[in-house]
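Quick question, first post here. What does this chain look like in 3D?
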Amino acid sequence: MSGKRSLIRAGTTVDQMVRAIGDRIVTGVLRPGEKLDEVSLAARFEVSRTPVREALGQLSAMGLVERRPNRGAIVAVVTQEHLASMFESMAELEGICARFCAERMTGNERRALETEHQASARLVRLGAEEDYEYFNTEFHSRLYRGAHSTHIYELTATTRSRLAPFRRAQFRLAGRLAKSWQEHDAIVTAILRGDGAAAGKAAREHVSIVSEASAVFVVDDHARAAPLHS
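> Answer (accepted):
Ran it through. Tokens below.
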């Protein structure tokens, strides 16, 4: 029991639940309208109901879970329109970050960005989806930090967290790792040249492509019309 409590205090258990449940929702294992029972989830993850409620709260903030007063939580309907709106905002924010990186990154930051980007090509060749996904998160975080704007960083990181399950899901698509690397390459090349306009354009286009790739995981109109549980 003490081990469980230490995990909960460290926050890792909640993060793991958010990721696991979020991924199952996005990929259709858990379908719109399906009930998310706190007791069952607590048993599955071997935790108390308190971290389960926290995880469901975070998923609700992402728009993946609907919490109903006195009726529990269900898997929410994620519409194409809502997802497109979120990605549209994400594209503009990342475009700003990339432009600022081209203008503001230090020499050390530019070298680190290029080094990590080139090293990630090996992950693409190996088809190491999970490792590349980790690199991808760090790559984008470097762009947010490299913009050297605290407020922009906070806005971008918050928006990205809400889209995280969809951004992970894209790597399930055939050939997506290689295409992602090529899109990153355009961003990195522009930043290293100090071309803010080109860097911003490349970043916006990258997120737009991610949006299109992720859209295949959103339920269609017929699925939305017939939830599994009321």
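The longest strand covers residues 65-68.
The longest helix spans residues 80-104.
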